[in-house]
Write a structure and sequence with these properties.
two-stranded antiparallel sheet, elongated
Length: 184
């Protein structure tokens, strides 16, 4: 499998994986009993982790929308043989995964002791997603470098077809004379 096809599959994987984790994040249960308001998280509301817990869904939606847009840009730039979109995607995936990882770490500090298994599940999901994205990055960077070094050989402009005017100029002179005699 060449780098172009692999990069294309990475783009499709990134879109589907982002949608999957967005669904998980939006459907996560934080309050178990609505009457007594029993929460999974500790009640201390100070510091950065409380802000992250409060705005977790907004953060997930924002990061996911940007990731889906840049994954779509990746697919478009692979089709158009443009290296800029691939480079933007590679830089964004690193920023996205690091932001998501630190968000999970901040949230895991505030989970109550009864639900520590939930924090391990969050970490396993996050680390597996990071590994899948980071394993694919060298192939995207390699294809980006290939497009950067030789853009004309991959673009549609680089594949010129000979026109009928240029082929007439390349005919031997005896061939044109024979054609003239045959037409008259």
């Amino acid at each position: 499998m060449n780098d172009k096809i692999f990069s294309f599959l990475v783009g499709i994987f990134s879109i589907l994986n982002t949608i999957q984790f967005l669904i998980f994040d939006l459907n996560e249960v934080i309050i178990l009993d609505y009457e007594s308001q029993f929460s999974v998280y500790m009640d201390t509301m100070s510091g950065n982790s409380s802000w992250v817990i409060t705005h977790k869904k907004d953060i997930s939606i924002g990061l996911s929308i940007v990731t889906i847009v840049l994954s779509s840009l990746l697919l478009y730039c692979i089709h158009m043989n443009n290296y800029v979109g691939l480079l933007c995607y590679a830089m964004w995936i690193v920023a996205y995964e690091l932001t998501s990882f630190f968000t999970v770490l901040l949230i895991n500090k505030k989970i109550k002791e009864q639900f520590k298994e939930l924090s391990y599940l969050h970490l396993i999901f996050q680390i597996s997603r990071m590994l899948l994205h980071f394993i694919c990055l060298p192939f995207i960077i390699k294809y980006t470098y290939t497009l950067y070094k030789a853009p004309k050989s991959f673009s549609k402009i680089g594949h010129r077809r000979c026109s009928s005017i240029s082929t007439i100029d390349s005919w031997p002179t005896a061939g044109l004379g024979m054609l003239y005699r045959k037409l008259n």
